[in-house]
Amino acid sequence: MASQNQSNQNSHESHATRRFIAIDLGASSGRVALGTLEGGKLQVEILHRFPNGGVPVRGQLYWDILGLWREVLHGLKLASRHGEIASVGVNSWAVDYGLLDGRGDLLGQVHHYRSPRLSGVMERVRAQLSDERIYDATGIQFLPFNTLYQLAAEAPEHLVRAQTMLMVPDLLHFWLCGVAVTERTNASSTQFFNPQTGTWAAELLNALEIPTGILPRIVEAGSVLGELLPEVSRETGLGGVQVIMPATHDTASAVAAVPAEGTGWAYVSSGTWSLVGIETPQPVITPRTRAENLTNEAGVGVDGQGATTRLLKNVMGLWIIQQCNEGWGLEYGELYAQAQAVEGGPLIDPDDARFSPPGADMPVRVQTYCRETGQAVPQTPAEITRCVLDSLAHRTAQILDVLEDVSGQPISTVHIVGGGSQIGVLNQLIADASGKTVVAGPVEATLMGNLLIQAGASLPEARQIVRDSCDLRTFLPRQSAPHAVESR
């Protein structure tokens, strides 16, 4: 298996037409996309969309991983109709995993990070190991669904039989080409990866009596794993296609496609979750970042050099509105337009634990929070949506202030990528709350980052290609109605 980035090999082909397949698995949907790179511009075509979500069984919550695999194979069949394909790569949400036995078969189901099995586990582990020990070794935000706590909640018989633990995108890469490794950016989300040494923080698992022999080898984004397995080629009609690791953590791929230049910028990867962060050359692990519960996740390298660090905060994002709309059943564009016309008022803490579980009673939870905190209680879907959007903007501004303070890096521009970049009212509210210029787009940052890493582009090259390929919108801070400036 080749493990080096392919930028040097591919640089002479920068003006040739090349096609790549990106598989993006999100918490609520998945896509298989065709990327065509020609003349320094990237065109992205969604070939197949499919729903995703948790499957409740006997009081627990799981992912339908075999159903996702079926959809991936269907998307690859569609891709085979588009001529020669150079490579394919998978990214997904973080923290969740599958355990494999000695034959490479799954042991049990793939648990959902919102599964009730995790209730109280983080608190137990933190009491046993101490926050200082965990954070100093990993620099990762304390979240109840981190892989560290998931393994602590794992069935003992599975851990005894397990030979390998693979994160979700690594599992699909294994099924595609038969190579069982983990890519650095997703490894860094587990809370048992040491970002300073670039190795597993196995001592944490040892202290919890979790076998460390299940941990696979860590490789870099851009690593070539090998060709599709013969059975996959036969099923999909794709022959001679390489499997290349993108940044398998979807946020890392999205950040690689942030169309930023120079310094003084932050990013918000805005979707079901909202990840607010900056890029730093080294991890920032201090008592202050631990107190602020900031996370140090690995990013991709710059011009073949060492990986960057994504210093960020993981915040509840559009999940609250998505769950509210499960009951409302409204068209999102109209809902956001109505919310824009509503005057701002009450604020919630979007990270309050009550908003984490799924359920169509989410509007009642928002109203209860406002009532308990002595604020006006929003009544209509538009008022509740405006409350949530205002709260997300306010929380984003708070985190940007903290990031400036702990890093010493002033922030003048905020790049918003992902699905939330389409919500003009939210972008404007973030500009107003933070007092910073907001640049929105691209929507498909995760797919673009995935594809450009497969193509061997360096980080500066990838961002230049994104700027040349996308229309962006700029929002200037003001207190009046949203105002967008078109730019290229």
UniProtKB/TrEMBL annotation:
Q: Could you tell me which residue ranges the Carbohydrate kinase FGGY N-terminal domain spans?
A: 21-255
**Is Electron transport among this UniProt entry's keywords?**
no
Per its UniProt record, what SUPFAM superfamilies does this chain match? Actin-like ATPase domain (SSF53067)
Which InterPro entries is this protein grouped with? ATPase_NBD, FGGY_C, FGGY_Carb_Kinase, FGGY_N, Rhamnulokinase
Question: Pfam families, alphabetically?
Answer: FGGY_C (PF02782), FGGY_N (PF00370)
Record keyword Chaperone present: no
Superkingdom is: Bacteria
GO BP annotations of the record are:
rhamnose catabolic process
Keyword annotations: ATP-binding, Kinase, Nucleotide-binding, Rhamnose metabolism, Transferase
Single GO molecular-function term?
ATP binding
Q: Where is the Carbohydrate kinase FGGY C-terminal domain?
A: 266-456
Question: Can you tell me which family this protein belongs to?
Answer: Belongs to the FGGY kinase family.
This chain belongs to the protein called Rhamnulokinase
- Where does this protein come from, organism-wise? Deinococcus marmoris
